[in-house]
Amino acid sequence: MAERSAVLEGLRAYRMIAGMWVRSGMTYRVSFVVTLFGNVVMTGLDFVGILLMFSQVDELAGWSLPEVAFLYAASVTSFGLAHLAAGSMQQLGSRIRDGSFDVLLVRPVPVLAQVGGDRFSLRRLGRIAQGGAVLGWALVAADIDWTVPKVLLVPLMVVSGAAIFVAVFVAGAAFQIYAQDAAEVQNAFTYGGTTMLQYPPAVFGKDLVRGVTFVLPLAFVNWVPAAHVLGRPYPLALPGWVAFASPLVAAGCCALAGLAWRTGLRSYRSVGS
């Protein structure tokens, strides 16, 4: 009961902090619209690169353009949702170095909620909108033999993928408590991870695919469930039932990330500034 109460308190605090930043960001609406449009354009350049590549080839490792677009869109949309919710956590290192992290520790509000809601920005919706548009096109253009499980798997994949990326953000923030200057290391797994997942697993070496399947299970963001939806071979010849394991993987990642965060927070020593 106490743990549930703490979670509800954290969510309430997160909502209030995020709402404060939303109201602040909407003060200058023209600036918000311009920034949002710019975000859509900038994030869309990655897909333009894929389109340019397919202007020279018909397939990539046996995958057609709509199939690669499906991978791209699932990865970008999931990451966009996670970045919207927890993207500010990548700035934790700078807060620790300038001493402002100590201020969060003395407030009667869960620290994770404060870090997650800090500088919440609706302009990050641009990535989600762009990824969602590509996803809609890919679902129509790809040759998919639709069944009820496949229809249900698409939104389940996106939501579970977002939860996995949120876990990576939280775990990265916990690591920054120790390292204090590790934002680029965290970016390698967040931004780097979503870029890698935009391409078929056959493009990469088997050792890398094993690593992102069994060690840091980013493969469950889109590679594994997308294989079922598109009727493609599963990475590493995994059994068919793993296509529906993304929610379990996401829950496990979030639990481990929460443990890492609590451990890091208990071991924190003020920088003294």
UniProtKB/TrEMBL annotation:
Superkingdom: Bacteria
Keywords attached to this entry: Membrane, Transmembrane, Transmembrane helix
Residue intervals passing through the bilayer: 30-57, 69-87, 128-146, 152-175, 208-226, 238-261
Protein name: ABC transporter permease
